[in-house]
Amino acid sequence: MSRQRDLDEEFAEFARGAAPRLLKAAWLICGDPHQAEDLVQSVMVKVYLKWSRLREGSPLAYARRCLVTTHIDTHRRTGRETAVAETPELGSWDRSWDDTDEVVRLLATLPLRERQVVVMRHYAGLPEAHVAELLGISVGTVKSSASRGLTRLRQALHPTVDVPEDARSAEVREGNHV
Amino acid sequence: MSDTHELDELLQRATAPHMHFDPAAAIATGRRVRRRRRIATAGGALAAVTAVGIAVTAAVPGSAPLLPAGPSKTSTASPKPTGSAGPSATQRCFPSDAERGTAWAGGSAKGSQRGGKVVVEATVREGCGEDVVGVGDLGGDAQVTVMFKAAPTSAQWVVADAAVLFLPKGQRPCGYSFGTDLPAPTTLPQANGWDLVIQPVPSKLLRKAAATGTVDLCEGSTPVTRGLKQIGWNGPGTQWYEDHKRNAATQGSGTATTGCDLDTLVGSTVPGAVQWVDETLTIPGAGRLTVDAQTHPGCTGDGHTSSWDPTQRAARLEVDVPAVPTKGFWDTVWMGGDAPTGVFLVPPGQSLCDIDFSRSGLKATPKLSAPQRVSLRDGWTLVAQPLPRVDNMQTLSASFCTGKEVTTTGVTPSS
Question: Which residue among A23, A37, A77 places its CB closest to the CB of B393?
Fold first, then answer.
């Protein structure tokens, strides 16, 4: 019984430390704080269930993977996404980012896959190979998704910049995701 | 955005709204899920669990997951009232950590399903309504916790990871109903004059042993007890089972039994729960898919839960229904990658004849890969059909046919 208690305390300590960044990543991906809380809660349950094995390895990596896969699962089951009526008009990089909605609205203009790639690459700071493994896609797809995502974000931030044709066509193909 | 560092900075600097995460809630839920998996593994007949019971045990900090085990063989308590799901949590007795009871027996031996030891801790908790058995994971070891409502006066045993027997001095197991060629047991003499016997059970026999196993006991070579059922046995022949069955028959499935609404009773089973489907398939390119369906006589509603373990590439669909349905139904299970798998349960004599994608947003009817079919013993067919990626699975609907005649149409996924 005491061993189990020790494991639980160890897990709780890990969870408390990892939760803030996972919550923020979840919020950036799904665009809604309540949904992000639900997502991280269910991810942490999965981590807890495997804690005796994960504790010696990379629990955070597993949690990230679960975050993405659980979000995809939820997305497909419920179609729940934060609706974005239009691309936010953002002036420049120098503007204040205290307006949290704006960041999420900006990301929400990206199709799901691109958004996941962008958040995992540029918020979680994961290498391309790691993101590819995480999402179950090729490194090439990570690169192209990141590139398209960046292009789209650039366009949102600087509306005068042209969007390359490949990004436009991708938007048509995947546009019904968000 | 010529420099991606700008994007890094943008995301890092973005101030997230206040969000809350509760580790204790994750632990409590995790225990509940773990308990459900364990129940399924053990055959579902080990113990009866009510929603109240789950909530209370899950909320006990630091406690092992526990299963109220139903009436003890030595119980003199009156049968559970007809029309209810059993006694309240207080009656069932889920003590707090501070109320640890009186140590009665304990010890450990090799032979856990987890590869390590089976660690047994038995206590007596005066005032409890019934005996309680729990199994916890100690990182390779199995922790078997037994809480007796009173000190046993006759032999008791239960299959929980291994067979655990509490025997008056001089008695020994001399035959199990579930197998003959078992590994050697370990007998641990107790200070109270009893023997604790830990009998490893091969994993292939565990489900049967937990569900229906009985033991014969001998003194020397003389049998003294034949066919002793386990602590918490609540199958046919027990008062609880018969009461529940009678209740189900008289009230019908339209009346909710308190605490037995399968919509909300995730992670539980009730007296007489019957395994209906237990099949594991391999979906090419995806992984393993286990379909675990149980019927719960007398309950209402239905529960559908799926999970995906990316490290094992294994998905599990759990279906809880009051009785074997009369019509076909299906669920979707996500198994990594881009697309889900449809799991269809097709009634005897029928077939899955169509999946309608017209509302899915797909521009053309997709070409589906070949499904996998498993014929169940009762004539139903399990069909696993990889599906294309669509935004909302609820836009899909299936039709079931008898021959060329459509029997049921417009069946959307249950979950």
Answer: A77
The identity of residue B16, as a single letter, is A
- Domain limits, chain B: 24-228, 273-411
| Cα–Cα distance for residue pair B86/B47, rounded to 1 Å | 12
Please, how many CA atoms are within 13 Å of residue B189, restricted to the half-sphere of its CB?
4
Q: Which residue of B has its CA nearest to A155?
A: B1
**CB within 8 Å of chain A, chain B residues 61-90:** 62-64
Distance of residue A167 Cα from the nearest chain B Cα, in angstroms: 15
**Chain-chain contact of B337 with A157 (C-beta, under 8 angstroms):** no
Tens-digit pLDDT string for chain B (415 aa): 445 676 777 777 777 788 888 888 888 777 766 655 544 333 332 332 222 222 222 222 222 333 333 332 222 222 222 222 232 222 334 443 334 578 899 999 998 877 789 999 898 876 555 676 766 666 677 878 787 878 999 999 988 788 999 999 999 999 999 888 899 999 999 999 999 999 999 887 876 787 678 899 999 889 899 888 888 665 555 554 555 555 545 544 333 334 465 654 443 444 456 788 988 898 888 888 989 888 877 777 777 777 777 667 788 888 888 888 989 999 988 877 667 899 999 999 899 999 999 988 888 888 888 899 888 878 899 999 999 887 777 788 999 998 888 888 889 888 6
- Report the DSSP pairing between strands B142-148 and B117-124: parallel
From the list B305, B307, B267, the residue with the least C-alpha distance to B54 is B267
What domains does chain A contain, in order, with CATH numbers? 1-82 (1.10.1740), 87-178 (1.10.10.10)
Contact residues on chain A for B334, CB-CB shorter than 8 A: 69, 72-73, 76-77
pTM exceeds cut of 0.80 = no
